[in-house]
Amino acid sequence: MTLYNKSGFLFDLDGVLIDSETEYSKIWAQVNSEYPSGTHSLEKVIKGCTLDKILADHYPDPEIQRNVVKRLYELEARMKYEYLPGAEKLLKTLKELGQPIVLVTSSNNDKMSHLDEEIPELRGLFDFIVTADLISKSKPDPEGYLLGAEKIGRDIRNCIVFEDSLQGVKAGHNAGAFVIGVAGTLGKEIIAPYSDLVVDSLEELDPNVLVQTAAERHE
What we know:
- The chain is α/β, with parallel strands linked by helices.
- It has two domains: 151 residues, 3-Layer(aba) Sandwich (Rossmann fold); 56 residues, no CATH class.
- A six-stranded parallel sheet has the order 3-2-1-4-5-6, sandwiched between helices.
- The longest helix has 15 residues.
């Protein structure tokens, strides 16, 4: 088996591929002001968590949950999605190199439908998409990344995970993958303990080096 047939690439979405973390922080801060959860800086605490986990942990009342979800979707519908620097080029180059790519996101199918409207070609760059609807445990549990590796037939130890949240880098680390932390949402010092490499931008990464790094980890 050649190096190019061993490696796999697993990407988080928000704050790694698309520029949405700032907007989501504003949205959740607004939701928290309209429907107080009792959690200070809720928008920071929930980064990387699925909506179900957020609701279960911070809005246990069913009626309030319904109101929060309705308001969240109203605000989300106004969002505009754009690639972060280096994201589109990295994805397309890995695709050209014949590498399997998986999206592992805490987003649900409703949000993904909106993303399809904003960046129609994005979905086609992935061999599989793991959404919140396909897993039972939120990050930092490794379930989503382990499922992603399984779907592309790769050993998770030969996969590279790209994450920006603390919950996310922990999930990649717990799965046993090589973790690249993308600083921006959080400072380097926060995600570094659970990352094998920390970068400011995906523009810093050489796809061919990534393939070799992943493939040679577990031979």
